Amino acid sequence: MIEEGGPGGCPASREEPRVAHSRTLRFWLDPANIAVRLGQAGPVARTKAGPTVAFQVNDPSLLRKVGCGEDIFQAWSADPCLRDFTGNGFAGSEGQAHRDRRALMKPALAAPRLTALGPSVRDSTERLIADLPTDRPVDIPFEMSRLVAGLVIETVLNSAISPDTLTELARARSVLSAGVFWKYALSPWPWVPTPRRSAFRRALATLDEAAREAYVRHRPDADGNDVVSLLKRSTDDRPDAALHDVRALLFAGIEATASTFAWACYELGRHPDHQTAIRAEADAVLGTDASANAAHPRLLPRTAGFVSEVTRLHGIPFLVRRPRQATYVGDQPVPAGALVTLPLGALRRDPARYARPAEFDPLRWAPEARPPLSPAALFPYGLGPRYCPGAAASEIMVPVALASLVRSRTLRTAPPGRTVRVSLELTPMPKGLTMVAAPREPNPPVPGPMPGEQTHSVRRP
Q1: Which terminus of the chain, N or C, has fewer Cβ atoms within 10 Å?
Q2: 3-state secondary structure of 422
Q3: pLDDT tens-digit profile of 227-279?
Q4: Tens-place pLDDT, residues 76-124
């Protein structure tokens, strides 16, 4: 087993949970392993994991070239093996058709239009966590999937679904994520049976039902220019296309964001002092007497830095492309259809970019840290033509929702000392992470300075 993580930017519990990666999956899921450490394998490395031969791009300039070269490299979601999953929506389209659908949605999902998203996220988060049990450990990946699904539907899609459908959708997320991973990974060998095929079909039916319910119960904005209204108007003669786009937005919004929330809970349990600091910030910004405009991530720098550090250590470890025809990546010849991996996880742990790269240190993202770091360097939403269309919404939703969660609950790992494994899904999840989400104390103590902050108020990145 390979264990990940360390003492972090501040002391963690002596019985903190460990994160373990199996030896066979080390290449895919553990960005700290020797095979993916930058500077040891050259700009492009030919690697092999089981039956899969892949070309790993270690040079950042080549990484951008491959990630942005849609004419040469095909994104994973456009692969024909995923047609039953992507359907007729923008996720499975390519070229001009893909660009046209994204351009249609862009005005509704642009930052200038999302001014009211923060208060909506704060209120929806408080409502969605009201039913979170307080007297027993809860399954964090499931509960965070449920929370994020509700937030995406209520605040981004301007809709609602029934509590039962929301629960089933949260349960279906991991099955869908793992199923899509295996369908794509095994696509060169179609005779190999995909694991849990029948469970995947049931989960896909659940996603379809949730998308259909959100589509029907959609509440348009007064000007009719919200994202679902735009999709509906553009496909008056093909409502199935709009429905598939809603489904793609729903799944994409849940998948990566639920993983971020689950790993954030993991790190909050390991670092109660960070939890205290985020709660103090949330009390100051999101209090009942705060103005509506206060619910914005720019006023939550400690929380936003925490999210960036979670993404750095636990974000999606790699992106995948396949060349449409034989080509070169740098000086390396790559045959058509080969797997080309972009190891984002390794770049995020590059010691040339980050001091103490194995440590969890949110203070490295503080606005006054020197040298300053840009969260864009994490590639949290991909790059190139497949850049996440909901990135602006996510940048508001995640910090505000996390601050709202910490403001209401205290998260503790239960039982302490257990090993948390990394699931094999599109976006790795902390498998087996259970925590107690206890109500906060009525009069929590005012947090003092963080360890190390008395002499050095801001840690260097």
Answers
A1: N
A2: strand
A3: 999 999 987 667 788 899 999 999 999 998 999 999 999 999 999 999 999 99
A4: 888 888 888 888 788 888 888 888 989 999 999 998 888 889 999 999 9
Q: Which helix (H) or strand (E) holds 3?
A: strand 2-4
Q: Say what the pTM is.
A: 0.86
- Distance, CA of 305 to CA of 324 (rounded, Å): 38
pLDDT at res. 289: 62
Residues 302-355: pLDDT tens digits? 999 999 999 999 998 888 899 999 999 999 999 998 889 888 888 888 888 899
Determine contact, residues 169/295, Cβ cutoff 8 Å. Answer: no
Q: Does residue 134 register a pLDDT over 50?
A: yes
Residues 263 and 314: their CA atoms lie apart, in Å, by 7
Closest to 353 measured CA to CA, from 368, 382, 375 = 375
Contact in structure between 359 and 292 (CB atoms under 8 Å): no
* pLDDT band (50, 70, 90) for residue 204: very high
Task: Please tell me the distance from the alpha carbon of residue 116 to that of residue 427, in angstroms, as a whole number.
Answer: 29
Own/partner pairs for 131-136, CB < 8 Å, 24+ apart? 132/409, 132/437, 133/437, 134/409, 134/436, 134/437, 134/438, 134/439, 136/436
Look at the block and give the residue holding tokens 């002499």.
Answer: 455
* Cα separation, 408 vs 361, whole angstroms: 23
DSSP 125-155: HHHHGGGS-SSS-EEHHHHHHHHHHHHIIII
- Using CA atoms, how far residue 171 sits from 127, 153, 181, 210, 342, in Å, is 20, 16, 17, 12, 29
Tokens standing for 152? 């995406």
Beta-strand pair 18-21/419-422: parallel
Structural tokens at position 356: 């103490």
Q: For residues 87 and 240, give the distance between their C-alpha atoms in angstroms, rounded to a whole number.
A: 9
Q: Strand, coil or helix: what is 123? A: helix
- The rounded distance, in Å, linking the Cα atoms of 244 and 283 is 39
